[in-house]
Amino acid sequence: MRKKSVGIIIFIQLAMTILLVYDFFPQLNIPVGIPEIMVLGILLLLVSVGILSSRLNSKDVRGTWVWQLASTGYLFLLIGILTMLGGVSQTEISFQNPILWVVLAISVHEIHQQKKKLKSATALD
After folding, report:
1. End-to-end CA distance of the chain
2. Prediction pTM value
3. CA Rg, the chain, in Å?
4. pLDDT higher for 55 or 42?
């Protein structure tokens, strides 16, 4: 993975972390002042940018796989930690939301497909 890609990944993960903390703990008065619907929209935009940037660099199959695995795991871990700390999502991002589980299923499927590509690419070498 190139330095530019790593920088983009770190920026996206940091931005998503800040937005999720703001969503789960709006009483912290983080000087962001973003309405809840915009928080959800920005989160979706960040995830889309991350997926598109990894797709555009599709020659790096291993990098794409690592990005998908790490970002999915990180987000679910972060949601779990924020929930355990007593936070409640203002945009209904929670483990009780069936949409979250659909997104997880799609992500796991994509990660599995990338792993297959990675195995076939290493088998050809």
Report:
1. 19
2. 0.70
3. 16
4. 42
